[in-house]
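Quick question, first post here. What does this chain look like in 3D?
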Amino acid sequence: MKRENLAPGVFLNTLDAQKFNRCRITIRFQYPACRETATASAVLPLVLERCCADYPDMTLLSRRLAKLYGADLSVDNSTNGANRVLTVSVTGIKDEFALEGEDLTAEYADLVFGVAFRPYLVNGRFDEEALAIERGKLRQQLQAEVNDKRLYCVRQARRRFFGDSLAGVERDGYLEEVDGVTPQLLTQVYEEMLCRASIEVTAIGAKDETVRRLLLAALEGRKRDWQAPLPGVFMPRRQPDHQVETMDMVQAKLCLLFTAGRCTGAQEIAASRLAMALYGGSVTSRLFLNVREKQSLCYYCFAVPEAQKGLMVVTAGIQRENAERTKEEILRQWKEVCRGEFTDGALEDARRALINAYRELTDNPSGLESWYTARAMAGITRSPEDEIAMVAALTRDDVIASANKLTPDTFYLMEGTAEHDEEEEPDHAD
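> Answer (accepted):
Ran it through. Tokens below.
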């Protein structure tokens, strides 16, 4: 991938990717999280996705996308450590497949930059009517959080873990603040983002020069006071925190957070991912085979890493009477990994699963773009092939050493009180 620094805090990443018949152009705005404006920041992508100055309503924008051979436009909100990330992307067919020889790169770039830099405003502010609709959608989303018990349990555990730190600022904002997001506040948050965010533009399968030209045009005349993104968040180790919440349901939910308590390098992160894959990352992992299959203690049980926060998150769906036993077995399985009590065959199964996951990222422009842009924002230039080579070279000792750097921190249990069984949730493998 080619990377250019076009202006302070503005970068253009380009990749030819000849094997695809589709192209993708993505803009990622990354800026420090702020508790006071979290809810407005959550509403912002919803409003931006509706329309822009060039296509001032949803119908016109949809017609434009249809005319561009059914191109896909999305605006998303995410977090990266203590930073927020707003992503605007468009995916469509490559120039060479245009039926009438259109310059599709120019069309796609103009559209994605228009949505990001030229929003539809009324008297210099976001439209109140559109904002009211999106506030309602966000309100419903926040109110419905508790209905997804597994997700709710994980979020409650994370809230306990991060507390009032910037990494704990809610990605989707706060229910009690939704109605307070006014056109003036939303416009202020948007303008501050344009001014202060680092801007990563990634073009895959598109004409580099065209994207560069239109990006510079979108930035022309804009005041920039770029602020570097905040570094990764690593909470200090502490005595394990135990919390129990009771809800009206049968199937209990258990979430365990393990923390490294410090920053780790590239090889250590790779070793940590392999250890987690061995432990709970697939249908051949210890959690799946031992806790779910052999002992039938849970409906699902798996582990996922969060490298930017030095975390491993373990979740399980269980019967409430099995809560303590399941927790003990989850911890026992981790201790055995830390002691190296696993076969070479199990290690190789985990290695293959992790390598295959990296290879799958290269099968489509979206996966490839997400890979490169995420690493570019972290100052890393490794390709998926580089990561595969690193994983392939990891030894048993590397995995054991990495596992021993993670310790249990937060235990969050949601106990059920309902009398009737609820539908069993799908396995992680599904």
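The radius of gyration is 23 Å.
The chain has two domains: 2-219, 241-416.
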